[in-house]
Every structure is written in C-alpha cells, then in structure tokens.
Design goal:
This protein is of the alpha/beta class and 437 residues long. The protein has three domains: 166 residues, Rossmann fold (3-Layer(aba) Sandwich); 162 residues, Dihydrodipicolinate Reductase, domain 2 (2-Layer Sandwich), CATH 3.30.360.10; 86 residues, ACT domain (Alpha-Beta Plaits, 2-Layer Sandwich). The chain is built from 13 helices and 19 strands. The strands form three sheets. Strands 7, 9, 10, 11, 12, 13, 15, 16, 17, 18 and 19 form an eleven-stranded mixed beta sheet that branches. A six-stranded parallel beta sheet has the order 3-2-1-4-5-6, with helices on both faces. Strand 5, helix 4 and strand 6 form a beta-alpha-beta unit. Helix 3 packs parallel to helix 4. The chain is elongated and about 85 Å long. The termini are far apart.
Length: 437
C-alpha cells in the first residue's frame, strides 16, 4: 500500500486535534483513501508541554525547516496561525513542491492573492476548508456543489464566540460583560476577545467566502464591519417585541456586477432558520440562481471539528497525488489568471430597513421633530414604540423602525437628530434584514 507523508507546523489545539484524528481514525481513512497517511514531522516552538495526544520524540522538532525541506513530505499542514512566519513557511513549502493545508483565515484574508498565485505557479494544491466555518463544508459547497450557480446572496453567522454571547444575552437576559467572562471561562473566547467581539474574525471569513462565491479578489480593508460590544439588553428586548433576534451577521448580496458586502449586528425575523442558530454554532444561508436556498449548520470552531475539516483537505489532496494530478479544482473557483478584483458596492449606497432607539426628553413635539428630519432625508417610518412617561421629565427610549432606506440618508438624518437638545444620547442604530429572506 502506498504511503503519503505529512508534515505539521503548529502543535497547539487544532494541531493536537489533527494528530488525534489520525491516530483514532487512521484505519478508516486508509480504507477510504486506499493509502496510508503518515505524520513524519511535527514542528512547534514548544515541544515539551504535554498535549492531549502522545507522539514519538523523534517526530517532534523546533525547526520548521525540517518539515519544509524534507523531500519525503508531500503535504504540509500549517496550523500555527498569524501572519509571519506562517506566510513565509507556506510559500517555502510551495516552492519546494509541497501541497499545503491551512486553517489560517487571517493570513488568507490579507495575503491570499499572493498565496493562491504561488500555489498555481508551483503546480500544488492549497486546502483551506478549516479557515471558514470549522467543520461546515462551506468552501467545498461553493467551489464544487454550487459551481453551476450564480450566487445571489449569502447570509452567515461566522463567529461562534459572538453568537454564544448574543444567544446568552437573548435567552437568559444576562449583560454583555458577564456573558463574555463566561465565554472566556469556557474557552469560547480568548483572553483578548477583540477579534471576535469586534467582528474582525468574522470579516476574515467573509473575505474568503466572497472570493469563492464570486471568483473575485477581495481587499479585506474594503469590507464594512461592526462588532457586538455596543449591543445592550434593552435593544435585545425591543428586538424581541418587534419579532426579531439580533445576530452578528455576514451579508453578501449580488447586484448585477456589484456585490454588497458587510458585517454587523443585524435584526432578523425570529422564525428564520438563522435566528435559531444558538450557542457557539455557525451557519450559512446561501441562495443560488439554480439551487435556490441552501442552509449549512454546524460547529464553527473547536479542536476536533476544525481537525475534521483539515483532514478533509488532506484526503482530497492525497487522492489527487495518488492519481498523479494536481489542481483539479481551482483554489478560488477560477484559475488565478482570470480572477479580477471584486467591485464592492459603496457602503453609503446600501439599502435596508433600520431600527433606531432615541434617548429623548419626555415632552410634547419630540416625535414630530424626529420624524420630520427622517422624512426630510427620505426615510419612511414603519413603526414606533414609546415607553411610559417618567415622573419629573427626563429621557425615555423612543424606538422606530423604518421601511427600506439608504445608508447615506440614515447617516445624514441621525447626524442632525443627535444634535437636537431633546436627544440626550447618541442614537442606537441596528440594521434589519427581512426583505431578502
């Protein structure tokens, strides 16, 4: 039986999961592949700290070059994360004729163009299923299953930490800070949770997803994003009253030759499938012109779910190696030579429905002043909620939802409203998605 040698760079949580999967399911993989996968070398700066798996000492090394320059290793698995030296290691592996599997979403979102071109030039494969959606096969779905479709829209919950926080705040009424600490204690959130709660992690995944869905290059910095750190229990309760749940939602909608792409807290109808995605799970609602709606759901992170996605790529590449071919499926759906820059719709031009919460003085004429400014800016009010009056005046919450409006008009109107002496705090804005569902 043929043997394919693997090299692993990064022996942390996910790397340990890959080793465990190879040990526990090696015989099953061997039957399905028709070849034996052997992990020849593992490189990590720390090879002394005990892991959840045991390996022979002669497999471990602190020198990544021992993996990159070993002529017997056909596939390099990069799981160290970060930008450098991960980028340099991947490029070196490709230059040496080795296929690469990575879960490094941040690297691909920012340096993907260089890496994908290098892979095609070297005639090697790069697998990155684990970089988006963990164990959910969304990359394979976009590149293969929906290859004959023009993707009309993608709505995704792409970050498990944020989704866990929003779920707990919604279902249990807990404040943001308390739930964040709970997520950190459970290992769902890092000690520094900025990338998760401010939407950076999810935006990395959105950038990769866009390039696959539309066969275009995407500049990460061009994507509009907001996180969940400003979402209050008060807004969650108003959302419930209006028939919505709030999710950190990644959105991509095709408009002829333009693509509307954004990531922010979004109110979605409580009866939509995405609204029911709880805890740290991820999900994708994809609509193609031929397929219609496709819904993918599962664990978006974690040791074994991510390791499962890594091994999916390893086996796919191994099958091509056994046939003596490479690059049967282009990394980004199209050959690199014909990929162009994506044309993103300017964020000011997007149109959707909106939720506003004003902190207004409780006195006559407030609603007419606010609604007058909204009307002047082409914003039509759909509903109004005003809670009870306070003794002795003071500010009360006034909630309005709108019909479809343009982002530019909304920004202009709120800028004027927030300057009124009857408004005592910055207006809360949350976008609503229901017309596209």
């Amino acid at each position: 039986m043929k043997t394919i040698s693997l090299g692993l760079i990064g022996f942390g949580t996910i790397g340990s999961g890959v080793v465990k999967l190879l040990q526990d399911s090696g015989a099953l993989i061997e039957k399905r592949l028709g070849a034996r996968l052997v992990l020849k070398k593992i490189a990590d700066l720390d090879i002394k700290t005990p892991r959840v798996v045991s390996v022979k000492k002669n497999v471990l090394t602190t020198d990544a070059q021992a993996v990159l320059n070993d002529p017997d290793i056909g596939i390099v698995i990069e799981l160290m994360g970060g930008y450098e030296p991960a980028r340099s290691f991947i490029l070196r592996a490709m230059k040496n004729g080795k296929h690469v599997v990575t879960a490094n979403k941040a690297l691909l979102a920012t340096h993907g163009d260089e890496i994908f071109r290098a892979a095609e030039k070297a005639g090697v494969n790069i697998g990155f299923e684990a970089s988006v959606g963990g164990t959910i096969p969304v990359i394979k779905t976009l590149k293969e299953s929906l290859v004959a479709n023009r993707i009309k829209s993608i709505f995704g919950i792409l970050n498990g930490t944020s989704n866990y926080i929003m779920t707990k705040m919604t279902d249990e009424g807990k404040p943001f800070d308390e739930v964040l600490k709970e997520a950190q204690a459970l290992g769902f959130a890092e000690a520094d949770p900025t990338f998760d709660i401010e939407g950076v992690d999810a935006a990395h995944k959105l950038a990769i997803t866009l390039s696959l869905a539309y066969g275009k290059r995407v500049k990460f910095d061009d994507l509009y994003r907001e996180g969940i750190s400003e979402i209050s229990q008060q807004d969650i309760e108003f959302a419930r009253e209006l028939g919505y749940r709030i999710k950190l939602l990644a959105i991509a909608i095709r408009h002829d030759n333009n693509v509307e792409a954004r990531l922010h807290p979004t109110m979605i109808p409580h009866d939509h499938l995405l609204a029911s995605v709880g805890s740290n799970f991820n999900a994708f609602h994809i609509t193609g012109d031929a397929s219609d709606s496709v819904f993918l759901y599962g664990q978006g992170a974690g040791m074994m779910p991510t390791a499962s996605a890594v091994m999916s790529d390893v086996v796919d590449i191994s099958r091509e190696m056994l046939k003596g071919v490479s690059g049967l499926v282009p990394a980004r759906s199209l050959r690199e030579a014909i990929i162009e820059d994506i044309k993103l719709m300017p964020f000011d031009e997007i149109e959707t429905n909106y939720y506003f919460r004003f902190s207004a003085v409780d006195q006559p004429g407030v609603l007419s002043k606010i609604s007058g400014i909204l009307g002047k800016n082409n914003i039509s009010i759909a509903s109004v909620i005003q809670k009870g009056r306070k003794q002795g005046g003071g500010a009360v919450p006034v909630v309005m939802t709108t019909h479809r409006a343009k982002e530019r008009d909304v920004r202009c109107a709120l800028g004027e409203i927030d300057q009124l002496d009857i408004v005592q705090a910055k207006t809360v804005l949350i976008r609503i998605e229901d017309h596209t569902f």
